[in-house]
Amino acid sequence: MVRYPLVEPFDEGVLETSDGHHIRWERVGSPGGKPAVVLHGGPGSGAAPWWRRYFDPERYCVTLFDQRGCGGSRPLASDPDADLSTITTQHLIADIEALRELHAVERWLVLGGSWGSTLGLAYAVAHPERVSEMVFWGAVTTTREEVDWLTWTMGEIYPEAFASLRSLVPHVERGGNLTIAINELLLDRDPAVHHRAARAWCDWEERLAALTGPPVASPRYADPTFALGFARLVTHFFGHHAFLPSDGISGHLDAIRDIPAVLVRGRLDIAAPLGVVHRLVERLPLATLHVVEDEDHGGAEVTDGLIVRATDDFAR
């Protein structure tokens, strides 16, 4: 067993924001344990129960929450009248801070995966005094370089699958913002238009999930409501490059240079260039990057073991 057994929350509730969002949250572990917060990926995947298993429930008090627009939070990004203008990285950072204050936490460990690592780094550089340690897997920073890699560069590796995605917006030339163009289709009020775009984007996600062999269908995309909300949020955040300037994270690393950190990436993770994270860690003296040779973006047993080892070490 690599991860801890699944435990049930000892507390849960809803955070109401001033702009009409209801953020579902839960707390697991020991009420007096070391504080931690989980930032799920996607964007739009939701805080699934398996996230709880990265922490020793005897030593941690962990806050998990569904980010705006997904999971048990409301309104959903899949709603016909969804307003994505109130779902940005800055809004999510404010939600993290509101949850920290709600639970009377001074500082906490931040654990994030994939998109959650971008959000975690953005939160840390904005509020370094509130972060005790950082643990990120599938680490990315969602810069334009990385988003272009996810689309145009990977399109050279999987030209057949990419041609299907590109066929939705043939007017967008290489170098253009493909994710924004697809997001516009996803927000079209015609169900035939937005569901077709959602299916196409989720097909592309499935293609990138494995380096070789045929794509493996993800059960969660079989739900058209989930697929639509997920695709809307992903293309919304990616199309705006995480709502951060190009140096929004890399230009502020001095703020987090004294925060211990563990980052994990699979060598076979083709969803983003590994070099971006490697260069980032080179500038953080207390950060360690583990490159797992035989695992991809989703990670597996080795990645899980490294994450659990990190949370265990930081609990001492």
UniProtKB/TrEMBL annotation:
Which N-terminal stretch is annotated as signal sequence? none
Name the Enzyme Commission number(s) assigned to this protein. 3.4.11.5
Coarse class of the protein's main subcellular location: cytoplasm
Q: Which Pfam families does this one have?
A: Abhydrolase_1 (PF00561)
Q: Where is the protein situated, by its record's location annotation? A: Cytoplasm
Catalytically driven reaction(s):
Release of N-terminal proline from a peptide
For whether the record's keyword set contains Kinase, the answer is: no
Q: Is Hydrolase included in the keywords of this UniProt record?
A: yes
Give one GO term, molecular function aspect.
aminopeptidase activity
Specify the enzyme's EC class, one word.
hydrolase
The protein's name = Proline iminopeptidase
